Here is the input.
Amino acid sequence: LLALPPVGLGAKEGEVSQIFKNCFQEICLDGSAVQPVLDRQATQLNTIMKALNVPCWAPDPVSTGSKCEVA
Here is the structure.
């Protein structure tokens, strides 16, 4: 599974990578319900992205002047 993390995470890159790994673990390996896992992990990802003011990344349109929010 290939996932491209956003650019500009710096020291938080490991935390973001762990969020992607947690989703895979919980959904694919543990059989957890998809939406609750995604909702919980999106909250954590948004917290990091807002703190760092990270723009959206491909394939989403590049955000200019606004923070990217994970739905």
